[in-house]
């Protein structure tokens, strides 16, 4: 049987070799047939094989180039980070659950006017601010996704009075802080909004076992103590921008990466790798409606920005009214954003735990800087859950220039 097969193979080989030799236009035949011709016309069969392999190899190299259809979604990227040892499996699950909440919020925002989700909810949060309908719903979505993932121990929201210990699971150790809707005043006019989150590891005081003598108040105090960590302890942080595109931007301490939601199949696709903020920028973003309430040193700085530079043009003023939108633009184009203290708000308007620390972590990972005017934002240890702080954040050279005016 083997002999018959070998004979048949030899006859086929001879047939194709003779056919190609007699053909006047044999060079027009496919590459694999021309290889057979070479084998029949040369005495050194091995050399012919090498030539054929070399020709085929060049074709394979072209095929190995990245196709325009190759995409890397958030799930694949997270799994690669886990394989590389940058994060563990539990953090992968937590980040995936946050991305799911962001997808749900994005869908609601796109249909908010249609399904009557605009306007006030009729309640006031712990900061004394009127809550929008989507403030309440988005907070519930975040909480539900984080509870159901089974890997979080404590969740703290800007919309909640106190941090919440997750009772559904005893295996979760991660602490997640978040602002479910940043810039909610923009919802009714369909302008830019976003979500902000930060993830901490467990604090020692959160690892105390619950015994029969523990009271709810004691456990709440443990939660508060555990959540109030400086931003330098963050393991991961990010935001989701809801605008003309939905962009999920993330750092796990290895640079900053952005993923854009592809609505055709509902996946966050990697679109910006290793984002590096420009060292200089030509955009400043301050709410200048508070100009007369600011410190004189800060006013001098802003007057300096308005003067024509070496190119004959002053800085451009841009103010979106949404921290996520401000930081997203700044990461790509540079510049500086400020929310300073004023005569009416001695500590500024933004929350340290939910907004300033996560954003400062991201900007520093991209090569930028963030300060309250005197110290690095990530070095501030919160004394209370809803603590506020002034913040100046952006391109490194721009922040350093500001500090010379405030000194």
UniProtKB/TrEMBL annotation:
Identification of the protein by name: fructose-bisphosphatase
Pathway(s) where this gene product acts: Carbohydrate biosynthesis; Calvin cycle
UniProt family annotation: Belongs to the FBPase class 1 family.
Reported cofactor(s): Mg(2+)
Gene Ontology MF terms: fructose 1,6-bisphosphate 1-phosphatase activity; metal ion binding
Ranges of residues in domain Fructose-1-6-bisphosphatase class 1 C-terminal: 277-406
Keywords recorded for this protein, A-Z: Calvin cycle, Carbohydrate metabolism, Chloroplast, Disulfide bond, Hydrolase, Magnesium, Metal-binding, Plastid, Transit peptide
GO biological process, one term: fructose metabolic process
CDD domains: FBPase (cd00354)
Cellular location(s): Plastid, Chloroplast
Organism: Quercus lobata
Catalytic activity, EC: 3.1.3.11
